[in-house]
Design a protein that fits this description.
2 domains, Peptidase_S8/S53_dom_sf, Rossmann fold, five-stranded parallel sheet, Subtilase family protein, 11 helices, elongated, alpha/beta, Peptidase_S8/S53_dom, about 325 residues, serine-type endopeptidase activity
Length: about 325
């Protein structure tokens, strides 16, 4: 799967990118590698990482067109889309758009791309605008967010408008070693691009199934207080973590996370209703993936809940399809 991304540039030095396939095509625009949000990564790096979290085997072809003012011209966008068509990409991610003016040439190139069999996923504006181009075009999959909606569901799909609507525009960047959230429809767009890159030929069926699935609901924090928890953490001596354990959870037992303690608690599963895992370092937490899955399979009655999204949504879906077991996370 070859995914075209039109965005800002980047150096891609974060360890998350070490085994990923990313090629950068430098066009006529001197794209700025701006640290716009103070996290030492560019917008383009955040977007590409979000895509690759869902489909780590994808090949990304990045065309940087964002200028120093964090904007780009419609002409540059059209040229970049033609470049990606020449590169035979399967899907194009546009975490950008024009909020002010309709351009017929942009409509023509987007229709041409779509009719060639290439999916386009584009972000709507983060501010309230009547339209954002090209996200509003019917042959483009638009991605927006609406925090005014009833937020029991994570995402909705409007097939008529070909639009994916998140109930929040905050997305985790835990996989980049940053245990926090980042806001913007750009990253919802990238999340959808990553998911659809694995399901290009039946994306509408997938989106409709996702919106009606168990994975489209937020895990309720309140259960941590009302049900008995076994709490695993990588910072048990941390005072803030201890306060979190006391105030947010009903933890019967707390342990520093290690591989060996997962099988140790197999024989104690009846004592707990939730295994809650709070590990704030993604790279270190990777070693526990298999142990977490094995625990979930061993005790299907205990809910396994992760504070941070160690698993991609794709991984959780596959695990559920194979084992009929859900691994819960607070974010997708």
């Amino acid at each position: 799967m070859k995914i075209g991304v039109i965005d800002s540039g980047g150096k891609f030095l974060n360890t998350f990118f070490a085994d990923k396939k990313i090629s950068i095509i430098c066009n006529k625009v001197n794209a700025v590698e701006s640290n716009a949000i103070g996290l030492q990564l560019t917008h383009g790096e955040f977007v590409c990482a979000t895509i690759l979290k869902e489909n780590p085997k994808a090949e990304i072809v990045l065309v940087p067109i964002i200028k120093n003012n964090r904007k780009c011209s419609v002409r540059d966008l059209i040229d970049a889309m033609q470049i990606l068509m020449d590169q035979d990409v399967d899907l194009i991610n546009l975490s950008l758009g024009n909020e002010y003016t309709f351009h017929h040439e942009l409509e023509i190139i987007c229709r041409k791309v779509w009719e060639s069999g290439v999916l386009i996923v584009a972000a709507h504006s983060n501010v309230e605008r009547k339209v954002t181009y090209p996200a509003v075009f019917p042959f483009v999959i638009g991605v927006s967010s609406d925090e005014k909606r009833e937020n029991s569901k994570i995402v909705n799909y409007n097939e008529k408008n070909n639009e994916v609507i998140f109930s929040s525009n905050f997305f985790s960047i835990y996989h980049l070693g940053i245990p926090r959230m980042i806001s913007g429809n750009s990253f919802g767009c990238a999340k959808i691009t990553g998911l659809l890159s694995l399901r290009k030929n039946n994306y509408k069926i997938f989106l409709k199934r996702l919106t009606s699935s168990i994975f489209n609901s937020y895990y309720p924090y309140s259960k941590l207080k009302t049900e008995k928890c076994l709490f695993f953490t990588n910072r048990i001596e941390n005072l803030q973590e201890q306060q979190f354990i006391r105030e947010v959870t009903n933890s019967i037992e707390c342990r520093e996370i290690q591989k060996v303690i997962f099988p140790y608690f197999y024989k104690k599963t009846k004592q707990f209703e939730i295994l809650f895992i709070d590990h704030d370092c993604y790279e270190d937490a990777l070693q526990y993936k298999k142990a977490i899955q094995q625990y979930a399979l061993h005790d299907k009655k205990t809910a396994v809940v992760l504070r941070y999204p160690l698993f991609s949504l794709t991984e959780r879906l596959k695990f559920y399809e194979s084992n009929n077991v859900v691994i819960y996370q607070f974010y997708i």
